[in-house]
Design a protein that fits this description.
83% helix; mainly alpha
């Protein structure tokens, strides 16, 4: 318990709380909309933005955010216009983002850069400024969900009904994809870009087994996300292991337990 008195640990747990909120909401959206693989393409293409930011010397989260938003908008274009072979395009974007990031980091002047924190997370390096940014993002995300919950629900489950109601589906999809992109970047410090899909999708999947509404799914998923992050954090501290990997393993254990409970 003595580690709770350390400021960087307090920042880490606060970051886990804020990230679990956006992770629970966004994870519920991508699981309900069956776009987990698409979100994976966005997440891994964001690594190209990390490389660009490091090479040109500006904020890493800003670089990752810009790249992930651009990629999500490009994917949205393909979805709206019913382009074929979108899975192949997502896979190509996935590989391109990772390759671009690695190359730019390799040629970045100066000392060698440790890729581990970006690929597998580094929650202990969260600063006060990072907490403020995540908190503001959570408030904007919650406000958007509360204001347009019925429209979002309709778009996720019944687009035909939304068209009959003259709801601008493409505009709402635009905002949803932007929030998903930014949420992925916000979660980067927890599990890294490699493991981020697990922390976004697994709690939402578990929640979907026990609740039958989107709002309850978001709340339960956020609670589970925070629980898994905390368990992974303390396990990694006790056994001196990678935090991101421990968070994902705790989520996997939770999914197994949830599946067993659901059977009985």
């Amino acid at each position: 318990m003595e580690i709770l008195s350390l400021q960087f640990v307090q920042f880490a747990l606060l970051s886990a709380f804020f990230v679990s909120i956006c992770g629970g909401i966004i994870g519920s959206i991508i699981v309900s909309n069956k776009t987990v693989f698409l979100s994976g393409g966005v997440a891994h293409s964001a690594f190209g933005g990390v490389g660009i930011a490091l090479y040109f010397g500006f904020n890493v989260m800003l670089g990752a955010a810009i790249t992930s938003i651009l990629m999500s908008l490009l994917l949205l274009y393909f979805i709206i216009h019913k382009k074929t072979n979108i899975d192949s395009f997502i896979a190509a974007a996935w590989a391109f983002g990772m390759a671009l990031g690695v190359i730019l980091i390799d040629i970045t002047p100066g000392y060698g850069i440790d890729l581990t924190s970006y690929l597998f997370g580094s929650i202990l390096t969260v600063s006060k400024a990072d907490l403020i940014v995540i908190c503001i993002f959570d408030l904007l995300l919650i406000a958007f969900i509360c204001m347009y919950y019925r429209e979002i629900l309709g778009i996720l489950y019944d687009e035909t009904f939304c068209k009959l109601k003259n709801i601008n589906i493409n505009l709402f999809l635009l905002f949803i994809y932007i929030f998903v992109s930014l949420g992925i970047v916000m979660s980067m410090n927890i599990a890294g870009l490699i493991l981020i899909l697990a922390i976004l999708s697994i709690p939402a999947y578990i929640a979907s087994m026990f609740v039958n509404s989107l709002n309850k799914m978001m709340i339960l998923s956020s609670i589970l996300s925070f629980l898994f992050i905390c368990v992974g954090f303390f396990v990694s501290y006790y056994y001196d292991l990678s935090i991101g990997a421990c968070v994902v393993m705790s989520a996997i254990c939770g999914m197994i337990i949830g599946s067993v409970v659901k059977l009985f």
